[in-house]
Amino acid sequence: xxxxxxxxxxxxxxxxxxxxxxxxxxxxxxxxxxxxxxxxxxxxxxxxxxxxxxxxxxxxxxxxxxxxxxxxxxxxxxxxxxxxxxxxxxxxxxxxxxxxxxxxxxxxxxxxxxxxxxxxxxxxxxxxxxxxxxxxxxxxxxxxxxxxxxxxxxxxxxxxxxxxxxxxxxxxxxxxxxxxxxxxxxxxxxxxxxxxxxxxxxxxxxxxxxxxxxxxxxxxxxxxxxxxxxxxxxxxxxxxxxxxxxxxxxxxxxxxxxxxxxxxxxxxxxxxxxxxxxxxxxxxxxxxxxxxxxxxxxxxxxxxxxxxxx
Length: 310
Hints:
With 310 residues, the chain is mainly alpha-helical.
Protein backbone atom coordinates (compact mmCIF):
# COMPACT_ATOMS: atom_id res chain seq x y z
CA UNK A 1 0.00 0.00 0.00
CA UNK A 2 1.40 3.39 -0.97
CA UNK A 3 2.07 6.07 1.62
CA UNK A 4 -0.11 9.17 1.78
CA UNK A 5 1.01 12.30 -0.05
CA UNK A 6 1.34 14.22 3.21
CA UNK A 7 3.52 11.47 4.71
CA UNK A 8 5.76 11.52 1.63
CA UNK A 9 6.00 15.30 1.84
CA UNK A 10 6.97 15.14 5.52
CA UNK A 11 9.65 12.56 4.74
CA UNK A 12 11.12 14.86 2.11
CA UNK A 13 11.10 17.88 4.43
CA UNK A 14 12.78 15.81 7.15
CA UNK A 15 15.53 14.93 4.67
CA UNK A 16 16.01 18.62 3.78
CA UNK A 17 16.25 19.46 7.47
CA UNK A 18 18.65 16.69 8.53
CA UNK A 19 20.79 15.91 5.48
CA UNK A 20 20.99 19.24 3.69
CA UNK A 21 20.69 21.57 6.67
CA UNK A 22 18.14 23.70 4.81
CA UNK A 23 17.17 26.97 6.46
CA UNK A 24 13.82 27.50 8.15
CA UNK A 25 12.90 29.89 5.32
CA UNK A 26 13.61 27.21 2.68
CA UNK A 27 11.67 24.58 4.60
CA UNK A 28 8.64 26.84 4.93
CA UNK A 29 8.74 27.66 1.21
CA UNK A 30 8.93 23.99 0.17
CA UNK A 31 6.24 23.00 2.66
CA UNK A 32 3.93 25.69 1.29
CA UNK A 33 4.53 24.86 -2.38
CA UNK A 34 4.09 21.11 -1.85
CA UNK A 35 0.96 21.60 0.25
CA UNK A 36 -0.61 23.50 -2.65
CA UNK A 37 0.45 20.82 -5.15
CA UNK A 38 -0.91 18.05 -2.93
CA UNK A 39 -4.22 19.94 -2.65
CA UNK A 40 -4.35 20.02 -6.45
CA UNK A 41 -3.63 16.28 -6.73
CA UNK A 42 -6.26 15.52 -4.11
CA UNK A 43 -8.81 17.50 -6.10
CA UNK A 44 -7.87 15.59 -9.27
CA UNK A 45 -7.47 12.06 -7.92
CA UNK A 46 -9.22 12.04 -4.56
CA UNK A 47 -7.96 11.86 -0.98
CA UNK A 48 -6.28 8.45 -1.48
CA UNK A 49 -4.23 9.52 -4.49
CA UNK A 50 -1.34 7.20 -5.37
CA UNK A 51 1.76 9.29 -6.16
CA UNK A 52 2.70 6.79 -8.88
CA UNK A 53 -0.31 7.94 -10.93
CA UNK A 54 1.12 11.42 -11.37
CA UNK A 55 2.56 12.08 -14.83
CA UNK A 56 4.27 15.08 -16.37
CA UNK A 57 1.00 16.12 -18.04
CA UNK A 58 -0.61 16.50 -14.61
CA UNK A 59 2.25 18.75 -13.50
CA UNK A 60 1.91 20.87 -16.64
CA UNK A 61 -1.81 21.17 -15.94
CA UNK A 62 -0.97 22.31 -12.41
CA UNK A 63 1.27 25.06 -13.78
CA UNK A 64 -1.55 26.11 -16.11
CA UNK A 65 -3.84 26.37 -13.10
CA UNK A 66 -1.27 28.56 -11.32
CA UNK A 67 -1.17 30.88 -14.32
CA UNK A 68 -4.96 30.91 -14.27
CA UNK A 69 -4.83 32.17 -10.68
CA UNK A 70 -2.71 35.09 -11.87
CA UNK A 71 0.66 33.86 -10.62
CA UNK A 72 3.76 35.23 -12.33
CA UNK A 73 6.26 33.09 -14.23
CA UNK A 74 8.70 33.50 -11.34
CA UNK A 75 6.14 32.15 -8.85
CA UNK A 76 5.27 29.25 -11.16
CA UNK A 77 8.98 28.48 -11.58
CA UNK A 78 9.41 28.33 -7.79
CA UNK A 79 6.45 25.97 -7.51
CA UNK A 80 7.86 23.72 -10.23
CA UNK A 81 11.30 23.70 -8.59
CA UNK A 82 9.76 22.43 -5.35
CA UNK A 83 7.73 19.75 -7.14
CA UNK A 84 10.71 18.67 -9.24
CA UNK A 85 12.96 18.38 -6.21
CA UNK A 86 10.32 16.38 -4.34
CA UNK A 87 9.88 13.91 -7.18
CA UNK A 88 13.65 13.56 -7.55
CA UNK A 89 13.78 12.45 -3.91
CA UNK A 90 10.73 10.20 -4.37
CA UNK A 91 12.44 8.47 -7.30
CA UNK A 92 15.67 8.07 -5.33
CA UNK A 93 13.74 6.48 -2.45
CA UNK A 94 11.83 4.15 -4.79
CA UNK A 95 8.38 5.67 -4.24
CA UNK A 96 8.03 6.44 -7.98
CA UNK A 97 9.78 4.76 -10.93
CA UNK A 98 11.04 8.08 -12.35
CA UNK A 99 10.78 11.83 -11.94
CA UNK A 100 7.87 13.05 -14.13
CA UNK A 101 8.63 16.69 -13.28
CA UNK A 102 11.96 16.37 -15.13
CA UNK A 103 9.94 16.37 -18.37
CA UNK A 104 8.32 19.73 -17.56
CA UNK A 105 10.19 22.79 -18.82
CA UNK A 106 10.88 25.65 -16.43
CA UNK A 107 9.01 28.85 -17.40
CA UNK A 108 11.35 31.25 -19.18
CA UNK A 109 12.03 34.22 -16.98
CA UNK A 110 13.20 37.68 -18.05
CA UNK A 111 16.82 38.18 -17.05
CA UNK A 112 16.94 41.08 -14.64
CA UNK A 113 20.41 42.16 -13.66
CA UNK A 114 20.49 43.56 -10.15
CA UNK A 115 20.73 47.32 -9.83
CA UNK A 116 23.51 48.11 -7.41
CA UNK A 117 24.64 51.36 -5.78
CA UNK A 118 27.86 52.93 -7.01
CA UNK A 119 31.05 52.81 -4.96
CA UNK A 120 30.58 56.51 -4.18
CA UNK A 121 27.02 55.94 -2.91
CA UNK A 122 28.15 53.10 -0.67
CA UNK A 123 31.06 55.08 0.77
CA UNK A 124 28.81 58.06 1.42
CA UNK A 125 26.23 55.93 3.21
CA UNK A 126 28.79 54.02 5.27
CA UNK A 127 30.71 57.15 6.25
CA UNK A 128 27.46 58.76 7.41
CA UNK A 129 26.61 55.70 9.46
CA UNK A 130 30.04 55.68 11.05
CA UNK A 131 29.46 59.28 12.08
CA UNK A 132 26.31 58.21 13.91
CA UNK A 133 23.53 59.42 11.66
CA UNK A 134 20.50 58.77 13.87
CA UNK A 135 18.05 59.59 11.09
CA UNK A 136 19.35 56.67 9.06
CA UNK A 137 19.26 54.10 11.83
CA UNK A 138 17.13 53.18 14.80
CA UNK A 139 20.13 51.83 16.68
CA UNK A 140 23.01 53.58 14.95
CA UNK A 141 25.91 51.41 16.14
CA UNK A 142 24.20 48.10 15.41
CA UNK A 143 22.80 49.23 12.08
CA UNK A 144 26.17 50.58 10.95
CA UNK A 145 27.65 47.16 11.74
CA UNK A 146 24.91 45.52 9.66
CA UNK A 147 25.68 47.71 6.65
CA UNK A 148 29.45 47.19 7.02
CA UNK A 149 29.13 43.40 7.26
CA UNK A 150 26.69 43.02 4.37
CA UNK A 151 28.70 45.20 2.02
CA UNK A 152 32.18 44.63 3.46
CA UNK A 153 31.90 40.84 3.55
CA UNK A 154 29.28 40.14 0.88
CA UNK A 155 27.42 37.70 3.12
CA UNK A 156 23.77 36.74 2.77
CA UNK A 157 21.10 38.08 5.10
CA UNK A 158 20.55 34.65 6.68
CA UNK A 159 24.31 34.23 7.13
CA UNK A 160 24.48 37.61 8.84
CA UNK A 161 21.76 36.95 11.42
CA UNK A 162 23.22 33.49 12.05
CA UNK A 163 26.55 34.93 13.23
CA UNK A 164 27.51 34.34 16.86
CA UNK A 165 30.23 36.11 18.82
CA UNK A 166 32.42 33.01 18.57
CA UNK A 167 32.32 33.24 14.76
CA UNK A 168 34.45 36.40 14.81
CA UNK A 169 38.11 35.43 14.43
CA UNK A 170 39.70 38.68 15.52
CA UNK A 171 43.32 37.54 15.15
CA UNK A 172 42.79 36.42 11.55
CA UNK A 173 40.28 39.20 10.79
CA UNK A 174 37.79 36.70 9.40
CA UNK A 175 34.24 35.54 10.02
CA UNK A 176 33.22 31.88 10.12
CA UNK A 177 30.09 31.95 7.99
CA UNK A 178 27.58 29.13 7.65
CA UNK A 179 26.10 29.31 4.16
CA UNK A 180 23.58 27.35 2.13
CA UNK A 181 23.47 23.63 2.83
CA UNK A 182 25.28 24.21 6.15
CA UNK A 183 28.54 24.77 4.25
CA UNK A 184 31.05 26.82 6.21
CA UNK A 185 33.57 29.29 4.81
CA UNK A 186 35.92 31.92 6.18
CA UNK A 187 35.28 35.47 5.00
CA UNK A 188 37.72 38.31 5.70
CA UNK A 189 36.52 41.61 7.11
CA UNK A 190 38.28 44.94 6.84
CA UNK A 191 39.17 47.69 9.28
CA UNK A 192 35.87 49.52 8.77
CA UNK A 193 33.81 46.44 9.64
CA UNK A 194 36.04 45.70 12.64
CA UNK A 195 35.62 49.25 13.92
CA UNK A 196 31.83 49.06 13.46
CA UNK A 197 31.60 45.77 15.38
CA UNK A 198 33.79 47.09 18.21
CA UNK A 199 31.65 50.23 18.48
CA UNK A 200 28.49 48.13 18.65
CA UNK A 201 29.54 45.41 21.13
CA UNK A 202 29.52 47.56 24.32
CA UNK A 203 26.01 48.81 23.51
CA UNK A 204 24.92 45.23 22.82
CA UNK A 205 26.22 44.16 26.24
CA UNK A 206 24.39 47.05 27.94
CA UNK A 207 21.04 46.24 26.32
CA UNK A 208 21.31 42.54 27.10
CA UNK A 209 22.21 43.30 30.71
CA UNK A 210 19.28 45.72 31.08
CA UNK A 211 16.91 43.08 29.68
CA UNK A 212 18.41 40.33 31.85
CA UNK A 213 19.15 38.24 28.76
CA UNK A 214 22.10 36.25 27.49
CA UNK A 215 22.67 35.18 23.90
CA UNK A 216 25.55 34.19 21.66
CA UNK A 217 23.96 36.03 18.72
CA UNK A 218 26.12 38.83 17.37
CA UNK A 219 23.17 40.95 16.22
CA UNK A 220 20.32 41.41 18.67
CA UNK A 221 16.98 43.17 18.44
CA UNK A 222 16.67 46.63 19.97
CA UNK A 223 14.17 45.47 22.60
CA UNK A 224 15.87 42.07 23.05
CA UNK A 225 12.63 40.12 22.59
CA UNK A 226 12.42 36.33 22.59
CA UNK A 227 15.81 34.79 21.84
CA UNK A 228 17.18 38.28 21.25
CA UNK A 229 18.56 37.35 17.83
CA UNK A 230 17.74 39.78 15.04
CA UNK A 231 15.61 38.33 12.22
CA UNK A 232 16.21 38.53 8.46
CA UNK A 233 12.97 40.48 8.10
CA UNK A 234 14.18 43.09 10.57
CA UNK A 235 17.50 43.38 8.74
CA UNK A 236 15.59 43.98 5.51
CA UNK A 237 13.65 46.83 7.09
CA UNK A 238 16.80 48.35 8.58
CA UNK A 239 18.68 48.25 5.27
CA UNK A 240 15.74 49.78 3.38
CA UNK A 241 15.38 52.58 5.93
CA UNK A 242 19.08 53.40 5.87
CA UNK A 243 19.24 53.24 2.07
CA UNK A 244 16.34 55.66 1.69
CA UNK A 245 17.91 58.04 4.22
CA UNK A 246 21.04 58.18 2.03
CA UNK A 247 19.27 58.65 -1.29
CA UNK A 248 19.70 55.08 -2.52
CA UNK A 249 17.08 53.21 -4.57
CA UNK A 250 13.84 52.32 -2.72
CA UNK A 251 14.22 48.65 -3.71
CA UNK A 252 17.58 48.37 -1.91
CA UNK A 253 17.63 45.27 0.30
CA UNK A 254 20.35 43.14 1.98
CA UNK A 255 21.05 41.16 -1.20
CA UNK A 256 21.63 44.45 -3.03
CA UNK A 257 24.65 45.05 -0.79
CA UNK A 258 25.91 41.53 -1.54
CA UNK A 259 25.66 42.27 -5.27
CA UNK A 260 27.44 45.57 -4.69
CA UNK A 261 30.26 43.71 -2.90
CA UNK A 262 30.83 41.39 -5.89
CA UNK A 263 30.38 44.06 -8.54
CA UNK A 264 32.69 46.59 -6.93
CA UNK A 265 35.42 44.01 -6.29
CA UNK A 266 35.26 42.98 -9.94
CA UNK A 267 35.41 46.61 -11.07
CA UNK A 268 38.51 47.10 -8.94
CA UNK A 269 40.27 44.13 -10.55
CA UNK A 270 39.49 41.16 -8.27
CA UNK A 271 39.68 37.68 -9.79
CA UNK A 272 36.29 36.13 -10.52
CA UNK A 273 37.16 32.86 -8.77
CA UNK A 274 38.26 34.74 -5.66
CA UNK A 275 34.89 36.51 -5.64
CA UNK A 276 33.19 33.13 -6.06
CA UNK A 277 34.98 31.83 -2.98
CA UNK A 278 34.15 34.91 -0.91
CA UNK A 279 30.48 34.84 -1.87
CA UNK A 280 30.17 31.10 -1.31
CA UNK A 281 28.79 30.42 -4.79
CA UNK A 282 28.80 26.74 -5.70
CA UNK A 283 28.96 27.50 -9.43
CA UNK A 284 31.14 30.04 -11.20
CA UNK A 285 28.23 30.77 -13.54
CA UNK A 286 26.40 32.37 -10.61
CA UNK A 287 29.34 34.68 -9.96
CA UNK A 288 29.58 35.50 -13.66
CA UNK A 289 26.37 37.50 -13.32
CA UNK A 290 28.59 40.23 -11.92
CA UNK A 291 30.62 40.18 -15.14
CA UNK A 292 27.41 40.76 -17.10
CA UNK A 293 26.50 43.61 -14.78
CA UNK A 294 29.87 45.29 -15.19
CA UNK A 295 29.77 44.91 -18.98
CA UNK A 296 26.37 46.59 -19.00
CA UNK A 297 27.66 49.47 -16.90
CA UNK A 298 30.69 49.91 -19.17
CA UNK A 299 28.40 49.92 -22.20
CA UNK A 300 26.28 52.64 -20.62
CA UNK A 301 29.36 54.76 -20.02
CA UNK A 302 30.48 54.20 -23.62
CA UNK A 303 27.08 55.19 -25.03
CA UNK A 304 27.02 58.31 -22.87
CA UNK A 305 30.57 59.54 -23.44
CA UNK A 306 32.14 58.29 -26.68
CA UNK A 307 31.72 60.71 -29.61
CA UNK A 308 31.16 57.86 -32.08
CA UNK A 309 28.61 56.03 -29.93
CA UNK A 310 25.73 58.31 -30.90
